[in-house]
Amino acid sequence: MHKITIELTIIINNLKSTSMKKVFLLTLGLVLGFSAFAQRTSVSNDAKNISFTAEKASAERISDGTQANGMSFTMPQSIVKSAPRTADQYEEMEAMITNYDLQSNSALGNRIATWPDGTASFVATWDHSGNTSFPDRGTGYNYYNGHEIGDMPEVRQEPMKSGWPSISPCGDGELLASHATGVNLYYRPTKGEGEWTLVKNWGAADGSPTWPRVVVSGPNDEYIHVVMCKQIGSAAPYDNHVYYSRITRNGDDVTAWEVSDLIDFPGVDNDAAGEYRNQLSADDYVMASNGDNVAVMFSAQTVEVFYMISHNNGETWERQIIAPFPQLNTEGEAVHAIDFDDYPEGMVDTIHTSGNSHSLTIDDNGVVHATFDLFTWQAADSDSYTYWPVWSYGLVYWNSEYVNERGGHELPLFGDFSGDAAHPEWEADGVGHSYIDERVWELAEADGHEHLHLFGYVDEDGDGSVNFDNVTGLTWSYRTNGWATMPSISIDNNGNIAIIFCAYSEVRLSEANFHMRTAFVQYKMADGEWSDDNVIDLMEYFEHSYDEAYATVAAPNCYNGEFFFSYSCDLNQGLYLDISDSYPTSNGGVMTDNTIFAIRVVPAGGVGIAEVVNPMTSVRAYPNPATDVMNLEINAAMASEMTINIYNITGQNVMNKTVNVTTGVNNTQINVNELGSGVYFCSVNANGFNKTVKVIVK
Question: For residue 465, which of 521, 514, 517, 506 has the smallest C-alpha distance?
């Protein structure tokens, strides 16, 4: 790896941009590399020795709102039309402005929905009332139609005070989940416009669950997966449970959809001894899906990093541990989680593990790609913990094709990797040193950085080290505790990977002389390698000299080298919702406007790609119902190879064939006499686009 050192000129910009969009036209030779980035840097000992003691995460995370009071409502979207999309490589759009700045209790995901035609939906927790009770709080929504972003929202999407939304594509429509004294799931058949219909309210009778996530799976998005949490008990400390429901979608009539019972998430036992011990709670999970695969990833400082995955649309689930919890019980056995109550006098050793920032996605081949932060801490007593921010500055990339020396897919605990023997200085804390950044780097080196990588080190001034001159007066963190945090991962249909994260900037200081959080993108093209050069400083490109970016989000799945991200920018540091006496962790005690930006990025490997065209104008099946032979009429805008798949009502692929079509109307015959009577879905795929028609066989 090499390092490029180029003089960095910062454009001073005290005022937020009032333009709806900032577009940067860059040639291939000028894309990236403007700042110097080094994967392995040194940090001053003064910075490393700084530690902080904080109260443990509250056992009670309260949400407020009112019960859902209607089955449907209308929320039209005014979309600004413009000329066709250009080859712009960086595009920043103002999606919404919100007073409410607490976008997540921990992990942040499932806030951007994308489609193969280049459109995307963006959501965030939103309020513009300027009132500390946040009476307007709910889902802020905006839609990018492939050319322009829509008008910024002036009202929330829900008819009642709500919070913490999750959005997912669903065929040509979209799903929205949020909570308001229970979780509400909405659907509309056309993305970006029209009426939302309430699919299901999991309310008081279900224990008033909160903080939902939603994704879809199956060849026609016919399976909907919703994850949420409940805090059980009459007073803190509560029993925390993660709950799951699967919905089978049949057309656009939500009254015909089958909603399963709300159950404890399969395989995630919060109560059993040695399992997760009620440590998984609000926002400690994110979701991803692709084809028949759906996965839910979990992480918190007191539990291992793992995900549950189903390869059959949620019928059965299995657990994959990424990073076992690096703390042994009194018998010397590994555990899935620990409880502060086990350490009334504190821990002797520090623990190097993950905090609560993580993300995952699934590629077209079913490979899971995940990222999470590293975190260094120890229990000070049963109610508080001490942490070391500078020892918590690594971000890990891992995919499910990683294999360790012992044949497993997980990162090995200390002593299970031959490289451990070369570092006797690590042995003092034993297993607790399993995930120090130096060790993870050596594991990645042994892997060739193909399936495992460590990043998040941003040496902006190019001197080979990361320097924080005012470290003694610096309050390092809020909500997330590391130097680099909030990683969110995306993969496109060609296998290109991009990860957005935020990290304290070495060179950007606030007027109060505190280091500002900056949004960076680290990417790897499908046929390339992780590189120092492939880091994008979004604050630099979009001239946010005095803005802080926090709460970084990526769309889990993108297409054709085009990635969508979002982040929140504010002139003040910290979160107003975390009021405290210490600046800057509480936004200076001032309620301000936070701009949620929608970002479109085409990394260097995607420069100059042609705009992808949908070759299918229309698809029609006749006769329908069919008995022996069905004719498929495909009206094509261009010559193309097309794949035809037929699925039964359970999602099983029962027939497939490939045809070559020419421009104009094409007809192909399909023998259906070997299929049993019933309802089927005929899916035509070409050039990354899909059209599906429902057919009946008599």
Answer: 506
